[in-house]
Design brief:
The protein has 447 residues and is of the alpha/beta class. The protein is 30% helix and 19% strand. It is found in: Lysosome.
């Protein structure tokens, strides 16, 4: 009886003292980042929408055509479409007729990615689910007539991958947004009737584990009611214990507030940031959405991707690599080849990436340039240049008599000898030829 009463008392205390986050940045920024995100290291980003129909220039097609009036986009429309053609007329051609979510999920799993971030709505405002506040500007009432967000989410979760959702706060030509903008953002009609209801709907309906917010730069977080939404997300939403968010919640919040930092597209710090961060980059170096005018020279090659991934992880970041599907739902072959190539490399060398931490030294240049990651007393030295000789020197690790050195993918221990107070010299086996052109030396029991 006393034990029962004691447990009840403990439960009551836990309920009363359960931490709740206030709708201000000081409180929200103090929330610990769920561990799954830091362990994941590598994710796939997917930009897909009506912009995949013209598939010219970039996913900002509508803006460059009718917002900024870029001559190249205007010329493209004059040459290929009749006078008076509107952007809305592209939507029925966004048919997703070859979209097979299970095939996408298999590819993403094969890439070695641990999470996927899918576009629910880009700045054009078209939603890839049946948003009740989107009129018919959505994928259920228009175009594919399918719930793309839901279908992909189900397939992703069958593969035990984490599912994240990209969402743009603003919409270029939405009259409610333009009305708020004209008021100097003193009114919030767009926020209250469109942005926040859609975010809440996405969370309740699909229960994402990550929200990748964007479109933040024109108005402050106060206009977007960002802190109020995040407080609800962290305190009362169905994903409050697992959700991860980025830092794009209003002008001035990037690299300053949020769960982890994107800072800017393709953010590449020169030194290790003091906060969890993510580098987002696209296989097509010139666009996030699919482009029919993409050239092979515009595409990142596999060694460059692996090098970028390793650099990012060594400096404590996650690597989010984007692909843009075609309007009919196909992931271009060159993107598939890159993703499967990453997966092949990670299948051998993934232990040097997943669930690792930055080491006390992030890089050195002894025999060849090397990047370091670590996991407990194990250190991984990752290099991308094939040495001209079999002897290989590392100057930073401090060895012990019990230190064991191996090359990942090769089960035999390597012969090595210590160098002075730190460092070691080893004899490498013949390095395998791989498309990734990257190898990993594993050092067990070093300091």
């Amino acid at each position: 009886m006393r034990l029962t009463l004691l447990l009840c008392a403990v439960c009551c205390v836990l309920v009363v003292t359960a931490h709740r986050y206030d709708p201000d940045w000081k409180s929200l920024d103090a929330r610990p980042l769920p561990k799954w995100f830091d362990d994941a290291k590598f994710g796939v980003f997917v930009h897909w929408g009506v912009f995949s129909v013209p598939a010219f220039g970039s996913e900002w097609f509508w803006w460059y055509w009718q917002g900024e009036f870029d001559p190249a986009y205007i010329a493209f429309m004059l040459k290929n479409y009749p006078p008076g053609f509107t952007y809305a007329e592209f939507a029925p051609q966004f048919n997703a007729q070859f979209f097979q979510p299970d095939e996408w999920a298999e590819l993403f799993e094969a890439s070695g990615a641990k999470y996927v971030v899918f576009t629910t709505k880009h700045h054009e405002g078209f939603t890839n689910w049946g948003s009740p506040t989107s009129w018919n500007w959505n994928s259920v009432d228009n175009g594919p007539h399918r719930d793309l967000v839901g279908e992909l989410g189900s397939a992703i979760r069958k593969r035990s991958l984490h599912y994240g959702l990209y969402h743009s706060l603003y919409e270029w030509f939405n009259p409610l947004y333009l009305k708020d903008k004209e008021s100097g953002f003193k009114t919030q009609e767009f926020v209250n009737s469109k942005t926040l209801p859609e975010l809440v709907d996405l969370v309740k309906r699909y229960k994402p584990e990550l929200i990748w917010s964007d479109g933040d730069w024109e108005a402050t977080d106060t206009y977007w009611n960002s802190t109020e939404f995040l407080a609800w997300l962290y305190n009362d939403s169905p994903v409050k214990d697992v959700i991860v968010v980025n830092d794009r919640w209003g002008s001035g919040t990037a690299c300053k507030h949020g769960g982890y930092y994107n800072c800017a597209d393709k953010f590449t710090p020169s030194t290790m940031p003091n906060h969890k961060w993510e580098k987002c980059v696209s296989v097509d170096k010139l666009s996030w959405g699919y482009r029919r005018n993409m050239k092979l020279s515009d595409v990142m090659d596999l060694p460059s991707i692996i090098k970028d991934l390793v650099f990012t992880v060594a400096l404590g970041g996650n690597y989010l690599l984007n692909v843009g599907p075609t309007s009919d739902g196909m992931i271009p072959t060159v993107f598939e080849e890159r993703l499967r190539g990453i997966g092949a490399w990670l299948k051998v060398n993934g232990e040097a990436i997943y669930a690792t931490a930055p080491w006390r030294v992030q890089s050195e240049n002894a025999t060849v340039p090397v990047w370091y990651t670590s996991k407990g007393s194990t250190v991984y030295a990752i290099f991308h240049t094939r040495p001209m000789q079999y002897s290989f020197q590392l100057s930073t690790p401090v060895t012990l008599d019990s230190t064991v050195v191996t090359l990942l993918g090769n089960s035999e221990s390597l012969k090595w000898a210590p160098l002075h107070s730190s460092g070691l010299m080893m004899v490498l086996p013949v390095l395998p030829c791989t498309a990734a052109e990257a190898w990993v030396i594993k050092l067990d029991g070093v300091m």
